[in-house]
Structure formats: C-alpha cells, structure tokens
Amino acid sequence: MKYIEGKNVRITDGFWKAKQELNRSTTMDAVWNRFSDTGRIAAFNFDWKEGMENKPHIFWDSDVAKWMEAAAYLIAEKYDADLEAKVEGLIDRIEENQGDDGYFNIYYTVCEPENRFAYRSCHELYCAGHLMEAAVAYFKATGKERFLKCMEKYADYIYKVFIVEKSAAFVTPGHQEIELALIRMYNATKNTRYLEMAEFFVEQRGNNEKDKPVTNDKIMKNNMYAQSHLPARKQKTAVGHAVRALYWYKAMADLAYEKNDEELADTCRELFTDIVNKKMYITGGVGSTHFGEAFTVDYDLPDETAYNETCASIAMIFFCKSMMKLENKTVYADIIEKELYNGMLSGLSLDGKAFFYENPLEINLRNHTRHTSVESLERLPITQRKEVFECSCCPPNINRTFATINEYIYGVDGDTLYVNQFMSSEADFEGVNVKQSTNYPVDGKVDLSFENAKTVKIRIPCWCDEYTVSCEFEVEENYIKVTNPRNIKIEFVMKPLLMYANSKVSSNVGKVALQYGPVVYCAESVDNIENLHSLYVDKNVNASVEYCGKCGMNKISLKGFKVKEAENLYYSGDMEFEDTTINFVPYSTFANRGESNMAVWFKTLR
Question: How far is 503 from 511, CA to CA, in rounded Å?
C-alpha cells in the first residue's frame, strides 16, 4: 500500500486540526526559542571557542534538523515567511561552514576536529541522517535545491569514507537513523548510490569485525544495546536502545519494500510481533527501562519506573507506516492509532509548550521524597513536563510528527482506497476525492463521501466489536469493503472497556485499565483521593462519559470502591469498602494541573 502524501491531504476540523494549529502557533516557537536559549541555533555559526558558554553537543545538529524538517512540512501546507526565513538562515550557515570535502558536523568541526568518525557512539551519522531528512522535506516543500545539494555532497563523502576507503574507525553508526534517511534521499533524487549506502549500513550491522568488540567506544559496551550482536536477518527479538532499534527496523522495512526482499520483510514482521505482543505498554509506550533507554525481557512492563521515551513511540509510528507499505494489515494502523492518542501524545503539554521525555504509567509522589535521612540512588521519571532537556530530541520530533499527521489517514493500492485513520479531512489524488467528517475520538461516528473511487476499505479498529454501516459491505481482513462508494455513514460503537494485562506482566495481574475507543485513561489524585492504590474499580461497569473541551476528548467517571481506612497498621478480618466514584482523564493529559499521583491500572471488585 502506498500512503497518500500530505500535500494531497488536508485535515479540516476536529481533534487533530486543533493539535496541528497548536503545533504551528505555539509549539514550533516554543522549541525554537529554547533551542536559541541553549545555544543550539547559534552553534550553526561554527564560532564556539573554549571558555565560551553553550559548548556544542554531539547531537545538537539533529535537534535543529528535526525542527527544520517540521518547518518544511508546515511551509508545504501553508506558506510561512517567518519559518522560511529561519530555515534559509540555517541553510546559509550550513552552506558556509560545510567542508570542501562535504563533511558537516558542528561538534566535530569546532570541538574535536581530530576525532572525525573516530567514535561509533557519538552521533555523526545520526546527525547526518536527520539533516538529510530535513533537506528532502524542504526540497519537496519549496523546490529549492540548495539544502539538498549540501546533503548530497555530505552523503557522497560518507560513501567515500565508509564504503570506498573504509577509513572510519567503525563500519555502522552507533545510533541508527542515516539508513532510513538515505532511502528518503534515494526516493527524492533517484540516485541509486543512496539506496546502496542504506543497504550497506543495514546489512553490515552486526556483520563485521570492526564494530565489535567495541573497544574504542565511550558509551557502548554491549553490542545488544545498539542491535549489533547479530546480522539484521538473524534478529528476531527487539533488544537494546528502543529508538535506535525502531529507526533501524523502519529502514529495514523500507529497504525490503524497495528491494522486494521478502526475507528482510519477514524479519521485520517478527520484530514487530515481538514488540507488540511482549514489550509494549497498553499506551503504546516502548523501551521500559531508563538503563540504556531500552527494551528488556519479555513482559517486563513496570508502571512507575516506565521509561517509554516519546521518541520511541514516534519511531514506532514510523516503523508501522513502513510495514503498511509492505502489506495492507490493520494491525499496523491500530498501533499507529494507539501511539497517536496515547504514547506519543502524552509527550506534549496541553498548552503546547512543555514536554515529557519519559512517559510513566504511574506516579506516586511520596516515592520521590521518602528518603529523608540518606541520599537516594533511586531514579523515577519526572512528574512535570519541561520546556527543554539537555538531550532534547523529543520536542522537535513532536513538531515534525504533528506536522505530518495527515500522511497517516489514507492509502491506495491499485484501485482500492484505504481509510486507515479517522480524522476530519479531505484528500485528492489521481482524480479521486474523499471527504471525511468525524468527532473521533470523542465518538465513533464517521461520515465519508467519495468521487471516482472504485473500491474503498475502511479499517475496523481493534478495540471495536460493534459497528453499523449505512450501505452494503463486506468484511475483508478487518476492513469494511465497499464497491463503488458514494456516501457512507459508519458508527464504531464506543463504550468503556476494562482491559486486562497478560498474567506474565507481574505488576498488573488481576488489574484493569480503562479504555474508551482508542484512548487509554488514567486517574489522578487531583480528581480523586490521594491514595489511588486504595481504589477498586467495579467490574460491573457503570460509567458516565463527558466531553472535556480543554483536552478535546472525554472524561469518564466509573463506579468504584475505596478501602475504609483502619487505625492499626495491621489487622485481621475482611477489608471494608465504601462506595465511591473514580474519575478518569485521558492518559495523554496527565500532569497538566500540577503535581499529582497518577495510575493507569486498578484492582477490581465483584
């Protein structure tokens, strides 16, 4: 299946229209301003000297590149002179400071020129990849080639160093990204050298002696951490740093598509299945530990210490999109939906100005202050979003993801149009027009109209077991299939669902999480009692659903029980309960009203 490009799709109303407008009006400026404050923008002047403030970091190029990429998408949608001026100013400095040989990296030009391509873990190729992605996006948005030409020159230099001369201290990047960027470069320029380079970096990973053991590396001491323990085609389980892994898996899927490589596609399928069935939170969060920001063993999904980097959820979206190009299966769109409304979305505050790097499923404020007499070595995720981080990859990643939400809605395969996501929108391509009107995810009503479409397939969401369709249809592999469609009204019936975890997820055995449509919910003490652990959900679901204008989704109240407080520390006999109401908000909106205890999973009664 081929996704219909963003330039042919316009989000017209509803939840994601509001989020895209927030991104354009507020979040883009918030990220740019913090990047200016911290020296990331000024670093492109290449004038830092020892003793000055804001020493460039090895990943700063990539932070700004992602912002540039987001700006390109916004310019393509609606011209913005201010955004264009900022991007053009950065391109001026890239062009001015790029080496004659094509090399471009701020840190290793200004701070350690003697160590160019000396340390595998130090992000040179990662930064190059993000700059390439930004250059492709800007070229497609504006038709201007200057930035793209700079990155073609850089890519050609990388080809020379890594493939022709083999003179770098390593063979493949520590942090994957350039692989997927090179495939984008290939698609934009049709230069097959870039596809060859992507294939080289994918196939050589875990398949050469130069990268292992990692004796000269400052960070990576374990080849599993950077997915270098086995060749690509022999990797069947997701291991190591989650973002690195998922960027690489996306590149593998893209390469499988471009090369019609069924063996590599099968590898991607196995990796996807391993993540979704054994290593993913109900919110879509992946990478459960802060140790290496990594995947761990199967079913290791702790709530309070969950890492779940926002970038990992975004990378999972990218991986799923590439898998949908390989095969039209609703499971990939289901996971994209899960990430969009939960795992990725929680990374941004409701006002669009602050961010979470980590996204836990539980907050117990007393655990942040309980060590009163000794210095604690415990590490818990922060409880409030921040405007900028020392490692600030997530904010501009949110910028570019929000700017491209429209790319996930529709796809086409031959004469069949696919409706994969439900957002008020309009698309035109190859003489076909589709209009969609919906309040999703507030309710499951979707109105669709088509012109010149021969066949349409509309995804049945995985959470939905009851729906109505206004015309004759067939069900084919979890799609509603309609021939010669004109006007279709669908209602995916939404009702509060109590979701259980596999019993191997030890921390949540016997507990339930609340889901309504695609949205996972949490309870915060600001709406309930302080001790959320003393609350039990009534299995006989008695719910009240109310729209919340501030968050654009529903709030839900469930009948429940709370344990009667006892005077004694320990006592015999049965626990006593009192009736209560438990108030839930969308998980993605937690921590927007000051510090508060929060929980997703609850015990049940009856």
Answer: 10
Enumerate residue ranges in the chain where pLDDT < 50.
215-216
**522 with 590: CB under 8 angstroms?**
yes
Task: Report d(CA 98, CA 154) in Å as an integer.
Answer: 9
**pLDDT in the model for residue 339:** 98
Q: How many residues does the chain have?
A: 606
Structure tokens, 287: 């990478």
* Ordered DSSP codes for 558-605: EEEEEEPP-SSSS--S---EEEEEEEEEEGGGTTSSSS--EESEEEEE
What pLDDT does residue 222 have? 74
Residue 337, by phi and psi: left (phi above 0), alpha (psi -120 to 50) or beta?
alpha
Does the N-terminal peptide bond of residue 213 adopt cis geometry, omega within 30 degrees of 0? yes
**Among 348, 289, 334, 364, residue whose Cα is nearest residue 524:** 364
Outline where DSSP puts E strands in 338-421.
362-363, 410-413, 416-419
Residue with tokens 């991104």: 23
H-state helical runs in 104-261: 106-110, 124-142, 146-159, 178-189, 192-204, 242-259
Angstrom distances, CA of residue 263 to CA of 199, 227, 267, 273:
14, 18, 6, 16
Using an 8 Å Cβ cutoff, are 283 and 359 in contact? yes
Q: Is the dihedral of CA 77, 397, 38, 62 positive or negative?
A: negative
Q: Give per-residue pLDDT as tens, 148-165.
A: 999 999 999 999 999 999
pLDDT for 234 equals 97
CA 5 to chain centre: 19
Q: Which amino acid is at 351?
A: D
Peptide bond into 496 cis (omega under 30): no
3-state class (DSSP) for residue 168: coil
CA distance 138 to 384: 34
What gap in Å lies between CA 361 and CA 522, rounded to an integer? 8
In 443-569, at which residue ranges do the beta strands (DSSP E only) sit? 445-451, 455-459, 467-469, 474-476, 479-483, 487-492, 496-500, 512-516, 519-524, 535-538, 543-548, 553-563
Please tell me the pTM assigned to this model.
0.97
Query: In 43-73, which positions are buried (b, 16+ CB within 10 angstroms) versus exposed (e)?
Result: bbebebeeeeeeebbbbbbbbbbbbbbbbbb
SS3 499: strand
Q: Where are the alpha helices (DSSP H) in 223-375?
A: 242-259, 262-278, 310-326, 330-338
User: CA angle, corner 356, sides to 377 and 296, nearest 5?
Assistant: 60
- DSSP designation for 348: B
At 215 the pLDDT is 47
